Input
Amino acid sequence: MAHPRPAHTHPHHADHEHGKPLIRFDHASFRYPQGPALEDITLEIADGEFVGVIGPNGSGKTTMLRAILGLMPPTTGSLQIFDCACQNLRCHHRARIGYLPQKRTVDPNFPITVHEAVLMGRSGAIGLWKRPGKADLAIVRHALEDVGMEDYDDHPLGALSGGQQQRVFIARALAQHPQILLLDEPTTGIDTTTQHNVLDLIQRLHEELHLTIVLVSHDINLIAPLAERLALLKTRLYALGSAKQVLTKEILARVYGPQILTTDTGHVIVADHHHN
Amino acid sequence: MVDFLTLGFLQRSLMAAVLTGGVCAAIGVFVVLRGLAFIGAGTAHAAFAGVALAYLLGGPPMPFAIAFGLGTAWITGLLEERGRMKLDVSIGISYTATMALAILFIGLMKTYNAEVYGYLFGSILSVTADELKLTAGLAAVVIGLLALFAKEFFFLAFDQEMAEASGVPARRFFFLLLTLVALTIVVSLKTVGAILVFALLLIPAATAYQLTSSLHRMMAYSVAIGVLVSVAGVLLSFQFDLPTGPAIVLLATGVFFVAVALSPKRAPKPALS
Output
Protein backbone atom coordinates (compact mmCIF):
# COMPACT_ATOMS: atom_id res chain seq x y z
CA MET A 1 0.00 0.00 0.00
CA ALA A 2 1.36 3.38 -0.93
CA HIS A 3 1.70 5.66 2.04
CA PRO A 4 0.11 9.06 1.71
CA ARG A 5 2.53 11.85 1.09
CA PRO A 6 2.48 14.58 3.70
CA ALA A 7 0.67 17.71 2.64
CA HIS A 8 3.57 20.07 3.11
CA THR A 9 3.01 23.55 2.09
CA HIS A 10 6.33 24.28 3.74
CA PRO A 11 9.39 22.13 3.43
CA HIS A 12 10.34 19.97 6.45
CA HIS A 13 13.08 22.26 7.48
CA ALA A 14 12.78 24.91 10.11
CA ASP A 15 11.56 28.40 9.54
CA HIS A 16 14.55 30.60 8.81
CA GLU A 17 13.04 33.54 10.68
CA HIS A 18 14.10 31.61 13.77
CA GLY A 19 17.49 30.38 14.90
CA LYS A 20 19.28 27.21 13.89
CA PRO A 21 17.43 23.89 14.12
CA LEU A 22 17.47 22.38 17.62
CA ILE A 23 15.42 19.27 16.81
CA ARG A 24 15.95 17.26 13.61
CA PHE A 25 13.94 14.15 12.76
CA ASP A 26 15.37 12.54 9.63
CA HIS A 27 13.21 9.68 8.32
CA ALA A 28 12.95 8.54 11.95
CA SER A 29 10.67 5.67 12.99
CA PHE A 30 9.82 4.63 16.55
CA ARG A 31 8.24 1.40 17.77
CA TYR A 32 6.62 0.07 20.90
CA PRO A 33 6.70 -3.70 21.47
CA GLN A 34 3.08 -3.86 20.28
CA GLY A 35 3.71 -2.04 16.99
CA PRO A 36 4.90 1.11 15.22
CA ALA A 37 4.38 4.39 17.07
CA LEU A 38 5.78 6.84 14.52
CA GLU A 39 6.98 6.14 11.01
CA ASP A 40 9.31 7.97 8.68
CA ILE A 41 9.18 11.35 10.40
CA THR A 42 11.22 14.12 8.82
CA LEU A 43 10.90 17.43 10.64
CA GLU A 44 13.11 20.26 11.83
CA ILE A 45 12.19 22.60 14.66
CA ALA A 46 14.19 25.80 14.97
CA ASP A 47 15.44 27.63 18.02
CA GLY A 48 12.65 29.91 19.26
CA GLU A 49 9.89 28.27 17.21
CA PHE A 50 6.43 27.33 18.52
CA VAL A 51 5.20 24.09 16.95
CA GLY A 52 1.83 22.52 17.74
CA VAL A 53 1.46 18.77 17.33
CA ILE A 54 -2.07 17.52 16.61
CA GLY A 55 -3.60 14.24 15.54
CA PRO A 56 -6.22 11.66 16.50
CA ASN A 57 -5.95 9.27 19.46
CA GLY A 58 -2.92 7.02 19.31
CA SER A 59 -1.35 9.01 16.48
CA GLY A 60 2.06 9.19 18.18
CA LYS A 61 1.91 12.71 19.64
CA THR A 62 3.24 11.77 23.08
CA THR A 63 5.76 9.42 21.47
CA MET A 64 7.19 12.40 19.59
CA LEU A 65 7.82 14.25 22.89
CA ARG A 66 9.31 11.16 24.54
CA ALA A 67 11.62 10.78 21.56
CA ILE A 68 12.78 14.40 21.86
CA LEU A 69 13.49 13.74 25.55
CA GLY A 70 15.78 10.90 24.49
CA LEU A 71 13.55 8.32 26.20
CA MET A 72 12.89 6.42 22.93
CA PRO A 73 15.61 5.85 20.35
CA PRO A 74 14.55 5.59 16.69
CA THR A 75 14.46 2.11 15.16
CA THR A 76 15.39 3.56 11.77
CA GLY A 77 16.44 7.03 10.66
CA SER A 78 17.84 9.54 13.11
CA LEU A 79 16.79 12.17 15.61
CA GLN A 80 19.21 14.89 16.61
CA ILE A 81 18.67 17.21 19.55
CA PHE A 82 21.18 20.04 20.06
CA ASP A 83 23.30 18.37 17.32
CA CYS A 84 23.46 15.21 19.43
CA ALA A 85 21.86 11.88 18.47
CA CYS A 86 18.90 11.42 20.82
CA GLN A 87 20.13 8.03 22.03
CA ASN A 88 23.35 9.71 23.16
CA LEU A 89 21.56 12.53 24.93
CA ARG A 90 23.43 13.14 28.16
CA CYS A 91 22.06 14.44 31.40
CA HIS A 92 23.29 17.98 30.74
CA HIS A 93 21.35 18.00 27.44
CA ARG A 94 18.20 16.74 29.13
CA ALA A 95 18.54 19.44 31.73
CA ARG A 96 17.99 21.95 28.89
CA ILE A 97 14.65 20.41 27.91
CA GLY A 98 11.69 21.31 30.10
CA TYR A 99 8.86 18.79 30.01
CA LEU A 100 5.27 19.01 31.15
CA PRO A 101 3.88 15.47 30.92
CA GLN A 102 0.22 14.72 30.38
CA LYS A 103 -1.64 15.69 33.48
CA ARG A 104 -1.47 12.97 36.03
CA THR A 105 -3.25 12.89 39.31
CA VAL A 106 -1.08 13.99 42.19
CA ASP A 107 -1.83 11.94 45.29
CA PRO A 108 -3.36 14.62 47.54
CA ASN A 109 -1.47 13.14 50.49
CA PHE A 110 1.94 12.97 48.81
CA PRO A 111 4.17 15.02 51.12
CA ILE A 112 5.57 17.64 48.79
CA THR A 113 5.30 21.41 48.87
CA VAL A 114 5.07 23.66 45.83
CA HIS A 115 8.62 24.88 46.54
CA GLU A 116 10.01 21.33 46.73
CA ALA A 117 8.24 20.32 43.48
CA VAL A 118 9.63 23.31 41.55
CA LEU A 119 13.11 22.91 43.03
CA MET A 120 13.18 19.39 41.55
CA GLY A 121 13.35 21.08 38.16
CA ARG A 122 16.84 22.33 39.10
CA SER A 123 18.17 18.81 39.78
CA GLY A 124 19.75 18.28 36.36
CA ALA A 125 21.28 21.77 36.27
CA ILE A 126 22.67 21.58 39.82
CA GLY A 127 24.30 18.23 39.09
CA LEU A 128 24.95 15.21 41.28
CA TRP A 129 26.35 15.54 44.81
CA LYS A 130 25.64 19.27 44.98
CA ARG A 131 22.99 21.01 47.00
CA PRO A 132 20.81 23.85 45.70
CA GLY A 133 22.40 27.25 46.28
CA LYS A 134 20.97 30.75 46.66
CA ALA A 135 20.90 31.17 42.87
CA ASP A 136 18.76 28.02 42.52
CA LEU A 137 16.33 29.24 45.16
CA ALA A 138 16.07 32.59 43.35
CA ILE A 139 15.36 30.76 40.06
CA VAL A 140 12.59 28.78 41.77
CA ARG A 141 11.11 32.01 43.10
CA HIS A 142 11.20 33.62 39.65
CA ALA A 143 9.67 30.53 38.03
CA LEU A 144 6.80 30.66 40.52
CA GLU A 145 6.38 34.39 39.82
CA ASP A 146 6.33 33.65 36.08
CA VAL A 147 3.30 31.41 36.55
CA GLY A 148 1.66 33.56 39.23
CA MET A 149 2.07 31.02 42.04
CA GLU A 150 4.62 32.81 44.23
CA ASP A 151 2.15 33.03 47.13
CA TYR A 152 1.80 29.24 47.29
CA ASP A 153 5.46 28.42 47.98
CA ASP A 154 4.89 26.37 51.15
CA HIS A 155 1.48 24.93 50.18
CA PRO A 156 1.08 21.17 49.83
CA LEU A 157 0.97 20.42 46.09
CA GLY A 158 -1.84 17.91 46.51
CA ALA A 159 -4.11 20.55 48.05
CA LEU A 160 -4.04 22.77 44.93
CA SER A 161 -6.64 22.76 42.17
CA GLY A 162 -5.88 21.07 38.83
CA GLY A 163 -5.09 24.38 37.12
CA GLN A 164 -2.80 25.49 39.95
CA GLN A 165 -0.95 22.16 39.89
CA GLN A 166 -0.49 22.58 36.14
CA ARG A 167 1.02 26.04 36.74
CA VAL A 168 3.38 24.57 39.32
CA PHE A 169 4.51 21.88 36.87
CA ILE A 170 5.09 24.56 34.21
CA ALA A 171 7.15 26.45 36.83
CA ARG A 172 9.15 23.27 37.46
CA ALA A 173 9.89 23.00 33.74
CA LEU A 174 10.84 26.70 33.65
CA ALA A 175 13.13 26.31 36.66
CA GLN A 176 15.32 24.13 34.47
CA HIS A 177 16.02 27.27 32.40
CA PRO A 178 15.18 25.18 29.37
CA GLN A 179 15.95 26.01 25.79
CA ILE A 180 13.17 23.69 24.66
CA LEU A 181 9.82 23.35 26.43
CA LEU A 182 7.74 20.24 25.67
CA LEU A 183 4.10 20.40 26.73
CA ASP A 184 1.82 17.37 26.54
CA GLU A 185 -1.87 18.28 26.67
CA PRO A 186 -1.31 21.15 29.13
CA THR A 187 -4.99 22.11 29.23
CA THR A 188 -6.56 18.71 29.78
CA GLY A 189 -8.64 18.26 32.90
CA ILE A 190 -8.85 21.94 33.79
CA ASP A 191 -11.79 24.31 33.41
CA THR A 192 -12.21 26.52 30.33
CA THR A 193 -11.16 29.77 32.01
CA THR A 194 -8.04 28.16 33.44
CA GLN A 195 -7.31 26.58 30.03
CA HIS A 196 -7.11 30.03 28.49
CA ASN A 197 -5.00 31.33 31.38
CA VAL A 198 -2.54 28.46 30.95
CA LEU A 199 -2.34 29.00 27.17
CA ASP A 200 -1.86 32.77 27.63
CA LEU A 201 0.94 31.95 30.06
CA ILE A 202 2.60 29.60 27.54
CA GLN A 203 2.31 32.22 24.79
CA ARG A 204 3.82 34.88 27.07
CA LEU A 205 6.70 32.58 28.06
CA HIS A 206 7.38 31.86 24.39
CA GLU A 207 7.49 35.55 23.54
CA GLU A 208 9.35 36.83 26.60
CA LEU A 209 11.81 34.00 27.14
CA HIS A 210 12.14 33.03 23.43
CA LEU A 211 11.60 29.39 24.33
CA THR A 212 11.34 26.75 21.64
CA ILE A 213 7.96 25.18 22.32
CA VAL A 214 6.52 21.89 21.14
CA LEU A 215 2.95 21.64 22.37
CA VAL A 216 0.87 18.50 21.91
CA SER A 217 -2.89 18.86 22.02
CA HIS A 218 -5.95 16.97 20.87
CA ASP A 219 -7.81 20.29 20.87
CA ILE A 220 -7.11 21.80 17.46
CA ASN A 221 -9.02 25.02 18.17
CA LEU A 222 -6.98 25.86 21.25
CA ILE A 223 -3.62 25.25 19.66
CA ALA A 224 -4.21 26.67 16.17
CA PRO A 225 -4.10 30.38 17.09
CA LEU A 226 -0.91 29.95 19.15
CA ALA A 227 1.43 27.75 17.15
CA GLU A 228 3.53 29.14 14.32
CA ARG A 229 3.46 25.76 12.62
CA LEU A 230 1.23 22.74 13.10
CA ALA A 231 2.40 19.15 12.65
CA LEU A 232 -0.51 16.80 11.96
CA LEU A 233 0.35 13.23 12.96
CA LYS A 234 -1.29 9.88 12.42
CA THR A 235 1.71 7.61 12.95
CA ARG A 236 3.14 9.44 9.92
CA LEU A 237 3.50 13.17 9.50
CA TYR A 238 0.46 13.96 7.34
CA ALA A 239 0.80 17.71 7.16
CA LEU A 240 3.12 20.46 8.30
CA GLY A 241 2.69 24.20 7.99
CA SER A 242 0.65 27.12 9.24
CA ALA A 243 -2.83 26.52 10.66
CA LYS A 244 -4.36 27.82 7.46
CA GLN A 245 -2.31 25.42 5.40
CA VAL A 246 -2.83 22.35 7.59
CA LEU A 247 -6.42 22.71 8.74
CA THR A 248 -8.09 22.24 5.39
CA LYS A 249 -11.20 20.12 5.01
CA GLU A 250 -9.39 17.70 2.71
CA ILE A 251 -6.43 17.07 5.00
CA LEU A 252 -8.53 16.81 8.16
CA ALA A 253 -11.01 14.43 6.53
CA ARG A 254 -8.15 12.25 5.34
CA VAL A 255 -6.63 12.02 8.85
CA TYR A 256 -9.69 12.09 11.11
CA GLY A 257 -12.24 10.55 8.72
CA PRO A 258 -15.93 11.37 9.00
CA GLN A 259 -15.69 12.24 12.71
CA ILE A 260 -14.50 15.78 11.89
CA LEU A 261 -16.52 18.82 10.97
CA THR A 262 -15.35 22.28 9.99
CA THR A 263 -17.68 25.21 10.67
CA ASP A 264 -17.99 28.30 8.48
CA THR A 265 -15.98 30.24 11.05
CA GLY A 266 -13.07 27.82 10.65
CA HIS A 267 -13.77 26.04 13.93
CA VAL A 268 -12.85 22.37 13.89
CA ILE A 269 -15.08 19.89 15.70
CA VAL A 270 -13.78 16.38 16.31
CA ALA A 271 -16.53 13.94 17.32
CA ASP A 272 -14.18 11.90 19.54
CA HIS A 273 -12.57 14.13 22.12
CA HIS A 274 -10.90 11.40 24.07
CA HIS A 275 -7.18 11.13 23.73
CA ASN A 276 -4.36 9.08 25.09
CA MET B 1 17.21 3.66 85.53
CA VAL B 2 20.60 5.33 85.17
CA ASP B 3 22.32 2.34 86.81
CA PHE B 4 21.30 -0.19 84.23
CA LEU B 5 22.41 2.15 81.44
CA THR B 6 25.96 1.46 82.58
CA LEU B 7 25.58 -2.21 81.61
CA GLY B 8 27.80 -2.92 78.60
CA PHE B 9 25.34 -5.13 76.71
CA LEU B 10 22.54 -2.61 77.18
CA GLN B 11 24.72 0.24 75.93
CA ARG B 12 25.51 -1.79 72.83
CA SER B 13 21.83 -2.65 72.39
CA LEU B 14 20.80 1.00 72.66
CA MET B 15 23.43 2.05 70.15
CA ALA B 16 22.28 -0.71 67.80
CA ALA B 17 18.69 0.49 68.28
CA VAL B 18 19.63 4.08 67.40
CA LEU B 19 21.53 2.96 64.29
CA THR B 20 18.93 0.45 63.09
CA GLY B 21 15.93 2.63 63.91
CA GLY B 22 17.51 5.65 62.24
CA VAL B 23 18.73 3.97 59.07
CA CYS B 24 15.52 1.94 58.55
CA ALA B 25 13.38 5.04 59.04
CA ALA B 26 15.51 7.10 56.62
CA ILE B 27 15.49 4.58 53.77
CA GLY B 28 11.88 3.73 54.66
CA VAL B 29 10.79 7.20 53.46
CA PHE B 30 11.79 6.26 49.91
CA VAL B 31 10.45 2.71 50.28
CA VAL B 32 7.03 4.10 51.23
CA LEU B 33 6.97 6.93 48.67
CA ARG B 34 8.27 4.84 45.78
CA GLY B 35 5.97 1.93 46.65
CA LEU B 36 8.77 -0.58 47.29
CA ALA B 37 7.33 -1.98 50.51
CA PHE B 38 7.09 -5.57 49.38
CA ILE B 39 10.54 -5.52 47.81
CA GLY B 40 11.68 -4.92 51.40
CA ALA B 41 9.78 -7.97 52.63
CA GLY B 42 11.16 -10.22 49.88
CA THR B 43 14.70 -8.93 50.44
CA ALA B 44 14.51 -9.54 54.20
CA HIS B 45 13.59 -13.18 53.72
CA ALA B 46 16.27 -13.59 51.07
CA ALA B 47 18.87 -12.15 53.46
CA PHE B 48 17.75 -14.66 56.08
CA ALA B 49 18.21 -17.49 53.55
CA GLY B 50 21.77 -16.16 53.04
CA VAL B 51 22.38 -16.33 56.81
CA ALA B 52 21.06 -19.90 56.93
CA LEU B 53 23.36 -20.93 54.06
CA ALA B 54 26.32 -19.30 55.83
CA TYR B 55 25.66 -21.33 58.97
CA LEU B 56 25.22 -24.49 56.89
CA LEU B 57 28.57 -23.94 55.14
CA GLY B 58 30.31 -22.53 58.20
CA GLY B 59 30.92 -19.14 56.55
CA PRO B 60 30.43 -15.57 57.83
CA PRO B 61 26.69 -14.70 57.83
CA MET B 62 26.86 -11.02 56.77
CA PRO B 63 28.45 -11.45 53.29
CA PHE B 64 25.98 -14.24 52.52
CA ALA B 65 23.06 -12.11 53.73
CA ILE B 66 24.27 -9.18 51.60
CA ALA B 67 24.67 -11.37 48.48
CA PHE B 68 21.21 -12.95 48.83
CA GLY B 69 19.54 -9.66 49.75
CA LEU B 70 21.13 -7.70 46.90
CA GLY B 71 20.47 -10.45 44.35
CA THR B 72 16.77 -10.56 45.23
CA ALA B 73 16.35 -6.77 45.32
CA TRP B 74 18.00 -6.35 41.90
CA ILE B 75 16.08 -9.19 40.25
CA THR B 76 12.78 -7.87 41.60
CA GLY B 77 13.73 -4.35 40.48
CA LEU B 78 14.51 -5.58 36.96
CA LEU B 79 11.19 -7.41 36.79
CA GLU B 80 9.36 -4.27 37.92
CA GLU B 81 11.20 -2.09 35.44
CA ARG B 82 10.53 -4.36 32.49
CA GLY B 83 6.93 -4.91 33.51
CA ARG B 84 7.14 -8.59 32.56
CA MET B 85 4.76 -9.50 35.36
CA LYS B 86 2.90 -7.78 38.15
CA LEU B 87 5.23 -6.77 40.96
CA ASP B 88 3.21 -8.49 43.68
CA VAL B 89 3.47 -11.76 41.75
CA SER B 90 7.24 -11.56 41.22
CA ILE B 91 7.83 -10.58 44.86
CA GLY B 92 5.48 -13.31 46.05
CA ILE B 93 7.54 -15.84 44.13
CA SER B 94 10.92 -14.54 45.38
CA TYR B 95 9.55 -14.19 48.93
CA THR B 96 8.36 -17.78 49.15
CA ALA B 97 11.28 -19.23 47.18
CA THR B 98 13.89 -17.61 49.45
CA MET B 99 11.97 -18.61 52.58
CA ALA B 100 11.83 -22.19 51.23
CA LEU B 101 15.60 -22.02 50.69
CA ALA B 102 16.11 -20.83 54.27
CA ILE B 103 14.00 -23.69 55.65
CA LEU B 104 15.86 -26.12 53.38
CA PHE B 105 19.27 -24.88 54.58
CA ILE B 106 18.15 -25.08 58.23
CA GLY B 107 16.81 -28.60 57.61
CA LEU B 108 20.14 -29.68 56.14
CA MET B 109 22.01 -28.62 59.29
CA LYS B 110 23.06 -31.58 61.40
CA THR B 111 22.37 -29.82 64.70
CA TYR B 112 19.92 -27.22 66.02
CA ASN B 113 21.46 -23.76 65.77
CA ALA B 114 19.78 -21.11 67.91
CA GLU B 115 21.90 -18.31 66.40
CA VAL B 116 20.16 -18.73 63.04
CA TYR B 117 16.81 -18.11 64.69
CA GLY B 118 18.32 -14.99 66.22
CA TYR B 119 18.45 -13.54 62.68
CA LEU B 120 14.83 -14.49 62.06
CA PHE B 121 13.37 -12.91 65.20
CA GLY B 122 16.19 -10.51 66.20
CA SER B 123 18.32 -10.56 69.33
CA ILE B 124 19.38 -6.99 69.94
CA LEU B 125 20.28 -7.59 73.60
CA SER B 126 23.02 -9.99 72.52
CA VAL B 127 24.68 -7.68 69.94
CA THR B 128 28.47 -8.00 70.22
CA ALA B 129 30.99 -5.17 69.86
CA ASP B 130 32.09 -6.49 66.45
CA GLU B 131 28.51 -6.71 65.22
CA LEU B 132 27.91 -3.18 66.44
CA LYS B 133 30.93 -1.94 64.47
CA LEU B 134 29.65 -3.67 61.32
CA THR B 135 26.18 -2.22 61.87
CA ALA B 136 27.67 1.25 62.38
CA GLY B 137 29.79 0.93 59.23
CA LEU B 138 26.88 -0.16 57.02
CA ALA B 139 24.59 2.45 58.56
CA ALA B 140 27.18 5.16 57.81
CA VAL B 141 27.37 4.05 54.16
CA VAL B 142 23.57 4.05 53.76
CA ILE B 143 22.99 7.37 55.55
CA GLY B 144 25.97 8.98 53.79
CA LEU B 145 24.70 8.01 50.31
CA LEU B 146 21.15 9.08 51.16
CA ALA B 147 22.40 12.47 52.35
CA LEU B 148 24.67 12.88 49.34
CA PHE B 149 21.95 12.10 46.80
CA ALA B 150 18.90 13.29 48.74
CA LYS B 151 17.57 15.49 45.95
CA GLU B 152 17.90 12.73 43.35
CA PHE B 153 16.16 10.17 45.59
CA PHE B 154 13.34 12.60 46.40
CA PHE B 155 12.79 13.28 42.67
CA LEU B 156 12.86 9.53 41.97
CA ALA B 157 10.25 8.93 44.68
CA PHE B 158 7.97 11.65 43.29
CA ASP B 159 8.20 10.90 39.58
CA GLN B 160 10.87 8.62 38.14
CA GLU B 161 10.12 9.36 34.49
CA MET B 162 10.19 13.12 35.06
CA ALA B 163 13.47 12.75 36.94
CA GLU B 164 14.98 10.89 33.96
CA ALA B 165 13.61 13.50 31.56
CA SER B 166 15.04 16.33 33.69
CA GLY B 167 18.61 15.09 33.52
CA VAL B 168 18.78 12.85 36.60
CA PRO B 169 20.13 9.35 35.83
CA ALA B 170 17.02 7.97 37.50
CA ARG B 171 17.43 4.32 36.50
CA ARG B 172 20.86 4.14 38.17
CA PHE B 173 19.47 5.79 41.28
CA PHE B 174 16.59 3.32 41.36
CA PHE B 175 19.06 0.44 41.52
CA LEU B 176 21.20 2.33 44.05
CA LEU B 177 18.06 2.72 46.16
CA LEU B 178 17.37 -1.03 45.94
CA THR B 179 20.97 -1.66 46.98
CA LEU B 180 20.61 0.62 49.99
CA VAL B 181 17.33 -1.08 50.95
CA ALA B 182 19.09 -4.47 50.86
CA LEU B 183 22.04 -3.16 52.93
CA THR B 184 19.66 -1.62 55.47
CA ILE B 185 17.85 -4.91 55.88
CA VAL B 186 21.14 -6.74 56.44
CA VAL B 187 22.11 -4.10 59.05
CA SER B 188 18.85 -4.76 60.86
CA LEU B 189 18.77 -8.56 60.79
CA LYS B 190 20.55 -8.96 64.11
CA THR B 191 18.52 -6.22 65.78
CA VAL B 192 14.91 -6.88 64.87
CA GLY B 193 15.18 -9.98 62.69
CA ALA B 194 14.13 -10.80 59.14
CA ILE B 195 10.42 -10.89 59.92
CA LEU B 196 10.13 -7.61 61.80
CA VAL B 197 12.64 -5.47 59.86
CA PHE B 198 9.92 -4.93 57.28
CA ALA B 199 7.87 -3.15 59.97
CA LEU B 200 10.76 -0.88 60.93
CA LEU B 201 11.19 0.11 57.28
CA LEU B 202 7.53 0.98 56.85
CA ILE B 203 6.00 2.16 60.09
CA PRO B 204 8.13 5.23 61.01
CA ALA B 205 7.95 6.51 57.41
CA ALA B 206 4.22 5.80 57.18
CA THR B 207 3.73 7.61 60.50
CA ALA B 208 5.71 10.63 59.30
CA TYR B 209 3.64 10.57 56.07
CA GLN B 210 0.56 11.23 58.21
CA LEU B 211 2.09 14.25 59.90
CA THR B 212 3.51 16.50 57.18
CA SER B 213 3.15 17.75 53.62
CA SER B 214 6.86 18.32 53.07
CA LEU B 215 9.38 15.75 51.85
CA HIS B 216 12.18 17.09 54.00
CA ARG B 217 10.07 17.26 57.15
CA MET B 218 8.83 13.71 56.45
CA MET B 219 12.44 12.52 56.47
CA ALA B 220 13.20 14.31 59.76
CA TYR B 221 10.04 13.04 61.46
CA SER B 222 10.56 9.48 60.21
CA VAL B 223 14.15 9.28 61.54
CA ALA B 224 13.11 10.78 64.89
CA ILE B 225 10.23 8.30 65.24
CA GLY B 226 12.41 5.35 64.16
CA VAL B 227 15.13 6.16 66.70
CA LEU B 228 12.69 6.90 69.53
CA VAL B 229 10.57 3.75 69.18
CA SER B 230 13.67 1.57 68.81
CA VAL B 231 15.32 2.96 71.94
CA ALA B 232 12.04 2.88 73.88
CA GLY B 233 11.43 -0.69 72.70
CA VAL B 234 14.83 -1.84 73.96
CA LEU B 235 14.28 -0.17 77.35
CA LEU B 236 10.75 -1.61 77.68
CA SER B 237 11.91 -5.09 76.76
CA PHE B 238 14.74 -4.87 79.32
CA GLN B 239 12.51 -3.49 82.03
CA PHE B 240 9.62 -5.93 81.54
CA ASP B 241 11.57 -8.90 80.16
CA LEU B 242 9.82 -8.81 76.78
CA PRO B 243 11.19 -9.96 73.41
CA THR B 244 12.82 -6.82 71.93
CA GLY B 245 11.82 -7.01 68.24
CA PRO B 246 8.09 -7.29 68.94
CA ALA B 247 8.34 -4.57 71.62
CA ILE B 248 9.86 -2.14 69.07
CA VAL B 249 7.39 -3.02 66.31
CA LEU B 250 4.28 -2.89 68.51
CA LEU B 251 5.36 0.43 69.98
CA ALA B 252 5.87 1.80 66.46
CA THR B 253 2.46 0.48 65.46
CA GLY B 254 0.87 2.26 68.42
CA VAL B 255 2.56 5.54 67.46
CA PHE B 256 1.35 5.05 63.88
CA PHE B 257 -2.29 4.77 64.93
CA VAL B 258 -1.98 7.84 67.15
CA ALA B 259 -0.52 9.73 64.16
CA VAL B 260 -3.37 8.56 61.92
CA ALA B 261 -5.89 9.79 64.48
CA LEU B 262 -4.17 13.17 64.86
CA SER B 263 -3.09 13.60 61.22
CA PRO B 264 -3.61 17.14 59.91
CA LYS B 265 -4.29 15.52 56.53
CA ARG B 266 -7.53 14.13 57.95
CA ALA B 267 -8.76 17.58 58.82
CA PRO B 268 -11.07 19.18 56.22
CA LYS B 269 -9.05 21.49 53.98
CA PRO B 270 -10.11 25.06 53.30
CA ALA B 271 -11.12 25.47 49.66
CA LEU B 272 -8.44 27.07 47.50
CA SER B 273 -9.35 29.41 44.74
User: Anything to note?
Assistant: The mean pLDDT of chain B is 87. DSSP finds eleven helices and no strands in chain B. The interface with chain A takes residues 33, 148-149, 151-152, 154-155, 158, 161-169, 208-209, 212-218, 265, 269, 272-273 of chain B (CB under 8 Å).
